[in-house]
C-alpha cells in the first residue's frame, strides 16, 4: 500500500502526517518553520519523514502561498526561503520523490469535499474567514487549482459595496495587501471586522470582543455585524452563482461563531439564484488539521493516477 507524507507549512510551524488511504490519515508532530534558510527547511521535512521509519511514495505540501500555473514558482512572502522557487521540482531533487504543492485554502476545500461538510456534493466552495479571507473550489472531487493558480480567491478584487447595512452607511474602499482597494479581504476577516467597528463607531475592540458584545445584544456591535454580513454576503452569493456550489464549508477563526455563520447563510441564500431550503454556508467539519488532510487527499489521488 502506498504511503504519502503530507505537510502543513505555516509561517511558524511545519506539521506532518502519514496517509495510506482516505480513512487512514495520521498526524505527526510539529517543528518550527525555518523561514530564511532553504537547507534548514529541507532538513526539517527530512526529519519529519525520518520519524515514520518508512520511505513514502510521494510528498504533498499545503502552503500559505500560491503556485504560479505558468512558471510553477511559489509566491509565499511569509517564508522567504521558498518564495520564488520552483518548490515542487526542488523538493523532488532533494528527496528523489514526486512532490505536490497546493495552497492551504485549496487544501481546506479538498478536505471538506472529501471528508467534511462537502461530502456527497459535486461542487464545493470552501471559504476561509480567518485573519483574512480565502477560498478554494473542488468540482467532481478534483481541485480546480491542481496546476496552481488563483481560482477560489474571492477575497480579492475591488468589489466591496460603497454603502452597507440597514440603514445604509458609507464604507471606505480600504487598501488591501494585494495592492488593490475595496477587497473582501479588507472587511471579511477578523481584522476586517475590527476595521469596520473602528470606522462605524471609532472604537478599538478585538473581533472576539465585538462578537461577544453582539451576542449580548449591544447596540454598536449589532450595527457592526449588520454591516459586516451585508458586505460579505453579496460577494459570497456571487461566488455561489458563478461556481454552482451546493455547499460552502467555512473555516478560519470566525467559522467558530455559529450564530454569525447562520446570519451569513441566511443573507447569502436570499441573494442567490438557486434557492435552498437547507443551510448552504456551514461550519467546516475537518476542524483539526484540514491542511494535512487536504494535502494527503491530493497526494493519494496523484498516486492512484500514477499507478
TrEMBL record:
It comes from the Bacteria. It holds the Pfam family ROK. Gene3D superfamilies: 3.30.420.40. Belongs to the ROK (NagC/XylR) family. PANTHER family: BIFUNCTIONAL UDP-N-ACETYLGLUCOSAMINE 2-EPIMERASE_N-ACETYLMANNOSAMINE KINASE, ROK (REPRESSOR, ORF, KINASE) FAMILY. This is ROK family transcriptional regulator protein. It comes from Rhizobium phaseoli.
